Amino acid sequence: MTGEDIPNPDYRLHLLKGFAAAAAVVVIWSGFNIVSRLGGRSPLTPYDMTAIRFVFSGIVCLPFVLARWRRLKWPRLAMLAAFGGMSYGLFVYSGFALAPTAHAGILVNGGIPFATALIAWLVLGHRPGIRSEFALLVAGLGIVLIGLHSFGQFSGAPAHQWVGDVFFLLAAICYASFGLLLKHWHVSPLDATIGIAVISMVCYTPVYLLFLPKAITTVPLAFVLWQGVYQGILAASIAGLLFAYAIHNIGPQRATLMLALVPGISAVAAVPLLGESLDAVTIAGVVLVTIGAVLGATHQSAK
Q: Comparing 93-97, 115-119, 124-128, 236-240, which segment has the lowest mean pLDDT?
């Protein structure tokens, strides 16, 4: 940003609201990692978790969709739902069934800004500057370290943990694609949130009921309701709306880079809440991803 382009008060307020929305997403998504890992440890299948997310969010958002039916751009919303709804949900919940919370924080929340910058570079031609490239390199080293941690079976890592890590990376790629499309198409935060929720519910629920493995009847109803409130209302609807608003105000790269705080918060919170341990490799991965994302965020903010 040049000296002639000093932002006016309205623009500063616009940015402040965007960063405040992204900060709220950080808090909700940190809790999402904990709650989802609890679901992954339960008898619930990833398909159950995905169904719970979509049914609760779809029911909450359905009245808004009916009120705005004619003005919604359904083809674009369907594409956004495919990436940021169904694909993301299936991949991330499959990961939580196999890998620890700290890995989710690093590979999903740390992987989203990495994947966003990489896709913007390779597909859209938005090559980052030298500092951004260095930030991506640092974050990438943290992601690679976690991959080696699982593949190399450090600290007695479970045999299939690396599969969960792959699911987490695929979830990050899906959500990064969603964020870039959301900004490119200028879809409003409300339209994106309600459209994705209802489309995902309508498309996924029949397939789940007819064809997919289910264990939802084996857990208490209170647990299902608790997961539904957090997954469908807080994480999918409220955090989805806030994240779309943040992207609208500050752009997809700065919005996703705010997620740098999630890996550390999730990893630390998982120790007392889930009894998960933090070894040196995992801590190093958290630190590298956080440093890389913070470097990228401060660079983006300076523009």
A: 124-128
- In the three-class reduction of DSSP (H, G, I as helix; E, B as strand; rest coil), residue 155 is classed as helix
In the block, residue with structure tokens 């879809």:
187
Question: Contact 103/279 with Cβ under 8 angstroms?
Answer: no
How many CA atoms are closer than 13 Å to the CA of 177, on its beta-carbon side? 18
More confident residue, 147 or 245: 245
User: CB neighbours of 61 closer than 8 A, spacing ≥ 6?
Assistant: 193, 194, 197, 198, 237
* pLDDT number for residue 141: 85
Q: What is the pLDDT of residue 207?
A: 96
Q: Quick one: how far is CA 170 from the chain centroid?
A: 11
Distance CA 49, CA 232 (A): 10
Query: For a pLDDT cut of 90, what percent of the chain falls above it?
Result: 43
DSSP character at residue 229:
I
Spatial separation of the C-alpha atoms in residues 250 and 17, rounded to whole Å: 9
Within 152-188, residue ranges assigned H as helices are: 161-185
Work out the pLDDT band at 161, boundaries 50, 70, 90.
Answer: confident
Q: For the residues of 182-228, what is the DSSP string, one character each?
A: HHHHT--HHHHHHHHHHHHHHHHHHHHHHHS---GGGS-HHHHHHHH
Q: Are 37 and 170 in contact (CB under 8 A)?
A: no
CA distance 168 to 91: 6
Residue with tokens 């932002």: 7
Sign of the CA dihedral with 37 first, then 41, 44, and 46 last? positive
* Residues 292 and 142 sit within 8 Å (Cβ to Cβ): yes
How many whole angstroms separate alpha carbon 25 and alpha carbon 32? 10
Which residue did the predictor score with more confidence, 34 or 120?
A: 34
In 3D, which of 22, 8, 15 has the Cα closest to residue 246? 22
CA–centroid distance for 184 within its chain: 19
Instruction: Say which residue, 122 or 257, is predicted with more confidence.
Output: 122
